[in-house]
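The authors assume throughout that readers already know how a fold can be written as discrete tokens. For illustration, here is how one protein appears when written out as sequence plus structure tokens:
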Amino acid sequence: MTPFQNLKVLALDVDGVLSDGRLYYGNQGEELKTFNIRDGLGIKLLQHAGVQVAIITGRTSNIVARRAQELGITHIIQGREDKLSALTDLCAQLDLDLSQAAYMGDDLPDRKAIQAAGLGATVADGAEEVKRVADWCSSKTGGAGAVRELAEHWLKSLGLWNTLVEQQA
């Protein structure tokens, strides 16, 4: 049995996973982030396969809320530095066990959530302490398609990738 078979939700950190982790500030005080369009399609493909996707981030940003809305992500937890507590709350809200959740993070605040999740994932440029406890590590860095890589691996392991690709054409 594939480790992805029991999973019902994917929770994602933002800075360092969905973005490259850099913060850009404009002269008017605005914050800017970049997101990878391929990560977005990976998220949508997981959703089409019945996987719920959530965001858990320690920061609070209107940009994150906007990106989540564009992707149809309804579970957005912002301003929570204790990622394990946030993941536990998310699973309780969805009536799921932690073993049914995947969590992808990149740095020390994500470590406990990665360890507790049914599948803990990280990015190629994640902290070494995080890589050591993760079940899966992408070959791509945060903000450069790591989430898409995870989605593809997940869907291929379930035998759903080719069908979902054909539906995109």
